[in-house]
Amino acid sequence: MIVREEIKLVTGNSNRKLAEKIAHYVDVKLTDCTVTRFSDGEVFVQINENIRGADLFIVQPTNPPAENLMELLMLIEASRRASAMRITAVIPYYGYARADRKDRPRVSITAKLVANLLTTAGADRIITMDLHASQIQGFFDLPHDHLYSSVIFNNYLSEMNLDNLTIVSPDVGSIKLARATASKLNADLAIVDKRRPEPNVSKVMNLIGDVEGRNIIIRDDMIDTGGSICSAAEFLKERGALDIYAACTHGVLSGKALKRIEESPIKKMIISDSIDQSQRNLSDKFEILSCSELIGEAIKRIFDEESVSSLFEDQPQFL
């Protein structure tokens, strides 16, 4: 039997800070590699260390720009050609996940396309966290470990010790996540009914549940332009809510998101470091929780051929 000799961690330019934290937790050094651009913008990748026979983990979120996805594909392909024993793509934020179905004529199911690209490039295993739609796991014909940020967020939210707490789902798609959070925190649950006339545009229609005189935590898997959550917060405030907090795993924060959040009734925006925020000037309204230990523990267990699902034994079955 062939035995993998060691863990190797590689990263591109998408979120090097997170990769460094994961490497520290796993107690290894990041493998030296070159990920640069030619003058015309093409990506160049070279791994500068011997990885033959290694259990290789490539940490690379695929948030915009699209070059982040290209870097991941090229790192996988280069690792395969360098004879790594097993290649695991660690994707804390899986981009293009919102294109997970054909909900209108002549549209691309891009989440499936990305899964095919990762498989063709040579990945042997996938690690993701809080996919926008859980069914994306079925797009892969590879072993897939789906991590839940609830392990991180629930501990933080419980330490806030909020009285009269209601967890709010900002739309129907986040009901399971909000319900699981409410169960863990022994809080009530409410749901905002909204409609999307077009991408990145939402309109609040109704509220299911009572929020008057209640402290609120809006729980979602991601925040992009901030339109949905900020309009939901304003709607909840009009309905008599007290302090309003938001906990969103992936902080995409595109367009006018920062301006909207600053001007909204949201008291604190809690996100993870699945996407690098170092180039943004975030105010004190933001709290960033690190997912490095969660991902690092999953990597250690995969390397040792131990159960990853046991990380979530305390999680409600709703997830």
What would the keywords be for this entry?
Rossmann fold, alpha/beta, 8 helices, 319 residues, seven-stranded mixed beta sheet, 2 domains, 27% strand, globular, five-stranded parallel beta sheet
Structure in words:
This protein is of the alpha/beta class and 319 residues long. It has two domains: 7-148 and 293-312, Rossmann fold (3-Layer(aba) Sandwich), CATH 3.40.50.2020; 150-290, 3-Layer(aba) Sandwich (Rossmann fold). The protein has eight helices and 14 strands. The chain has helices spanning 16-26, 67-81, 110-121, 150-159, 175-185, 227-238, 257-263, 292-303; strands spanning 7-11, 33-37, 43-47, 55-59, 86-91, 125-129, 144-147, 165-169, 188-198, 201-208, 215-223, 244-251, 266-272, 286-289. The strands form three sheets. It has a seven-stranded mixed sheet, sandwiched between helices. A five-stranded parallel sheet has the order 1-4-5-6-7, sandwiched between helices. β12, α7 (257-263) and β13 (266-272) form a beta-alpha-beta unit. α1 (16-26) crosses α8 (292-303) and α4 (150-159) packs across α5. The mean pLDDT is 92.
Blueprint (SSEs and pairs):
Blueprint: E1 7-11, H1 16-26, E2 33-37, E3 43-47, E4 55-59, H2 67-81, E5 86-91, H3 110-121, E6 125-129, E7 144-147, H4 150-159, E8 165-169, H5 175-185, E9 188-198, E10 201-208, E11 215-223, H6 227-238, E12 244-251, H7 257-263, E13 266-272, E14 286-289, H8 292-303
Parallel strand pairs: 1-4, 4-5, 5-6, 6-7, 8-9, 8-11, 11-12, 12-13, 13-14
Antiparallel strand pairs: 2-3, 9-10
Helix pairs in contact: 1-8, 4-5
